[in-house]
Amino acid sequence: MAAQAQRSCCQHHALIVALWSFAGAVATAALILLGIFINHKFPEKAPKYSVAVAAVAGLDPARDLSDRGRPTISPVFNVTVHMDNTGNAVDGNCVPDLSTAEVSYGDAFLGKGTVPKVCAGKRREAEGVARAWGQEVMVPWFLRDQLAGELAVGEAEVDVHLIRPHRSLLVCKAKIGGGLFQCREPEDF
Question: What transmembrane ranges does the database entry give (predicted)?
Fold first, then answer.
């Protein structure tokens, strides 16, 4: 009888241990699933930036770029800065005041302008338009000829550097007259 009572006690103890182990596994799985749900429901991804160069003046291939009598050019670019903050459900983000857009082609500076403050709330997108311009800019003839040829066939791309005060630089390549093109941190290139 004592052996039967001891066996019953051991079985009871084993059953309790098994139930607690099962409850622990269920609780762990529930916590993991809750973490996945919260991370999916409230993500905190950094905003994505993109630019478009929708319009340009002062870069007419025949009049401005190919005229050997004009040693300089004075281009003006409308640069749309787009912020996609849809991956962040916790905070809004802004391109701060005094940010600039600097446009270049083949390492030749073409223009610079101030970007207006652009703010996107949680899970939102926003954009603003900057006017980048250069006055009497010296661009080497080989680059002017190359740019004129690319503009003639609709394939001209410029580099746009978004410079944010107290933050990092963003580098973007954008086709003139094309849609939005993704920006990257310089180390991503």
Answer: 15-38
What pLDDT sits at residue 35?
66
d(CA 96, CA 118): 7
Are 89 and 111 in contact by the 8 Å Cβ rule? The answer is no
CA distance readout (Å), 41 to 29, 37, 48, 124, 178: 18, 6, 19, 15, 34
Strands 48-57, 181-184: pairing kind: antiparallel
C-beta of residue 76 within 8 angstroms of C-beta of residue 57: yes
Distance between CA 30 and CA 24 in Å, rounded?
10
Instruction: Find tokens 């009598």 and name the residue.
Output: 69
Q: Which residue has the tokens 């182990």?
A: 21
Give the separation between CA 18 and CA 12, rounded to whole angstroms.
10
Model pLDDT for residues 119-167, shown as the tens digit of each residue: 999 999 999 999 999 999 999 999 999 999 999 999 999 999 999 887 6
Q: What tokens were used for 31?
A: 């916590």
Matching residue, tokens 């207006």:
116
Q: Could you tell me how many helices (H) and strands (E) the chain has, helices first?
A: 2, 12
